[in-house]
Amino acid sequence: MTQHVALVTGGSRGIGAAIVEELVTVGAAVIVAARGLQDCERLCAQIEEAGGSARPLALDVADRSSLRAARVRIEQLAGELGPVDWLVNNAGIAISAPLLRGTTDSGEDLYERHLAVNFHGPRLLVEALLPGMLERGAGRILAIASSAGLVGYPYVSAYCASKHALLGFTRAAALEVGPKGVAFGAICPHYVDSPMLAASIANVVAKTGKSEAEARAFFASQNPGGALVQPSEVAGVARQWLESGPNGAVIELDGARQHLRQ
Ligand SMILES: NC(=O)c1ccc[n+]([C@@H]2O[C@H](COP(=O)([O-])OP(=O)(O)OC[C@H]3O[C@@H](n4cnc5c(N)ncnc54)[C@H](OP(=O)(O)O)[C@@H]3O)[C@@H](O)[C@H]2O)c1
Predict the structure, then answer these.
(1) Other beta carbons less than 10 A from residue 150's beta carbon
(2) Rounded distance from Cα 229 to ligand 1 centre (Å)
(3) Which ranges carry the Ketoreductase domain (predicted)?
(4) How far is the CA of 180 from the centre of ligand 1 (A)?
C-alpha cells in the first residue's frame, strides 16, 4: 500500500479530528495541526499508541509567522514521513453577528478575521504545498467549506463571505491545476454535530432560554435532511474523495444525503 502523508488543519477536535482518525485507518501518516498544540499532541499520542502514525503541528493559519514556522516543520517531517500529498484545509471559525455589526466588542473586524482564517489560511497553505505536488505530478487538496459557501444565511454574513471565497478559489484551482495532476475538491456540510455547533447551541440557550435539547433540535430542523451531519460522515466522504474522488467535486452533505455538484 502506498503510504499517503496528510496534513489536516484544525485536526485537534470536531470534524478535523474525525478526518484524522479516518485517514489513519487507511494507513496514512497524518500531521495534526491547530493552534492548541497540546490537543494535537494528545490525539497523536492516542493514534501512535494504537499503531498509527501521527505528528502534532502548532499552526495558526491566520498568522503569517506561524505559517512560516509550520512550513519549516513540514519540510523536516517530509524527511521522516515523505512529502504531504493530501492537504485537508479544515480549520475554520464561525462568529455570528447582525449585518451592520462588523466588529467584535474588542474592535476586531469580523470580515477580516473570517477571511484570514477561512480563506487566506487555506490559500497560503496551497501556495506552500502546491509547487511540490506539481513537481511530483500528484496531490489532492480538500477544503472543508460549508453549505454557507453555496447559499447565504442571516446573521453570519462574514462566515458566508469567507466560505464563498474558499469555494470560488477551489473551483478555479480545480480547472487550472487539475489537468496537471493535482486535484481540488470541497465538502459543504450543513450543520455538523461538533464543538463549533455546541458553542452555537450554548449561545441560543443563553439568549432565548430554550433548553439544550430544543436548541439542538432547532439546528437539526434547519438541515434539509432533518438531522445533524455527524463528523464521522464528513470524515468518510473526505477519505473517499482523497482516495479517488473527481477533480472539481463539491460535495454537499445535508444531514441525510450527499449531493455531488461541480
Ligand atoms: N460545525 C458545523 O456545523 C460546520 C458546518 C459546515 C462546515 N463546518 C466547517 O468545518 C470546519 C471544522 O469545523 P468544526 O465544527 O469541527 O469546528 P470546531 O469544532 O470549532 O474545531 C475547529 C478546529 O479548527 C482549529 N482552529 C480554529 N482556528 C484556527 C486557526 N486560526 N488556525 C489553526 N487551527 C484553527 C481548532 O483548534 P484550535 O482552536 O486549537 O486552533 C479546532 O481544531 C470549519 O472550517 C467549519 O467552518 C462546520
Answers:
(1) 18
(2) 15
(3) 4-190
(4) 30
For the chain, how big is the Rg over CA atoms in Å?
18
Name beta bridge partners: 32. Answer: 8, 56
SS3 69: helix
Nearest protein Cα to ligand 1, atom 32: 60
To the question of domain 5-189+231-250 being in CATH 3.40.50.720, the answer is yes
CA distance 181 to 170: 15
Q: Which of 185, 190, 189 is nearest to 243 (CA)?
A: 185
Burial class (CB in 10 A: 0-12, 13-18, 19+), 70: buried
Residue 159's nearest CA partner among 190, 121, 118, 101 is: 118
Ligand 1 pocket by Cβ (under 6 Å): 9-10, 12-16, 34-36, 39, 59-62, 90-94, 117, 144, 146, 189, 191-192, 194-197
Residue nearest to atom 7 of ligand 1 (CA): 146
Residue-wise pLDDT for 168-211, tens only, equals 999 999 999 999 999 999 999 999 999 999 999 999 999 999 99
How many angstroms from the chain centroid is the CA of residue 26?
19
Provide the pLDDT confidence category of residue 102 given band limits of 50, 70 and 90: confident
Asked if residue 7 lies in contact with residue 86, where contact means CB atoms within 8 angstroms, the answer is yes
Query: pLDDT band for position 107 (50/70/90)?
Result: confident
Q: Catalytic residue numbers?
A: 159
Ligand 1 atom with the shortest distance to the CA of 59: 33
Question: What does the domain layout of the chain look like in residue ranges?
Answer: 5-189+231-250, 193-228
In this prediction, residue 168 carries a pLDDT of 98
